[in-house]
Amino acid sequence: MKNSFLIDRKFIPYAMLLLALGMGLGFAYLNDTILPFLQIKSSNTGIAVLLERSNYQGDLALTFILIALYILGFIQRKKEDEYIDFLRYQALIKSAIFQTAGLIVGTWFFGGLSFLNLMLMNLFSFLILFNLFFQFELYKTNKKMKQ
Predict the structure, then answer these.
(1) Which of 2, 37, 81, 98 is the most buried (most CB within 10 A)?
(2) Where are the alpha helices (H) located in the chain, listed in sequence order?
(3) How far is Cα 119 from Cα 137, in angstroms, rounded to an integer?
């Protein structure tokens, strides 16, 4: 059975490069290090001040990380079969449950700016949890098969 949403294995190095670039840009952005080639000069006139932004470093970092996590999560395995599909499905369900539980807890315990930080973390949490659960299940399966 061939799944159309799986990505070819040749994209793994590109995904790792995107992840490294995204994390580097993100850490630089969080430490208030603005890279000059990512800044755009604004006109500072009228409503353009409200609409224009001068720095797209955070947006670029977010985009790179999300694309890389998606590619790494849905990369086709060497031996793709129904069991791998089942493990991928289980990982998706577990990550959805954990993310929803985290959002519910976060809604009750955080407010204001802390809640916005929680929402920012929520952007990554689904793909990160999915990758962690899927890789862990693959690791456990491979360990059992070698015994």
Answers:
(1) 98
(2) 12-30, 48-51, 57-73, 82-109, 113-146
(3) 27
> CA–CA separation, 35 vs 27, rounded Å?
12
Contact indicator for 123, 67 with CB cutoff of 8 Å: no
Looking at this protein, which amino acid is placed at residue 25? Answer: L
Each residue's pLDDT tens digit in the chain (147 positions)? 555 678 888 999 999 999 999 999 988 888 888 777 776 666 665 555 555 656 778 888 889 999 999 998 888 888 878 888 899 999 999 999 999 998 888 888 887 777 888 888 888 889 999 999 999 999 998 888 887
**In angstroms, rounded to a whole number, what is the distance separating the alpha carbons of residues 146 and 80?**
18
**What is the torsional sign of CA 24, 26, 29, 30?**
negative
Return the half-sphere exposure (C-beta side, CA atoms, 13 A cut-off) of residue 118.
17
- Are residues 41 and 54 in contact, defined by beta-carbon separation less than 8 angstroms? yes
Reduce the DSSP state of residue 139 to 3 states and report it: helix
As a whole number of angstroms, the distance between CA 106 and CA 114 comes to: 9
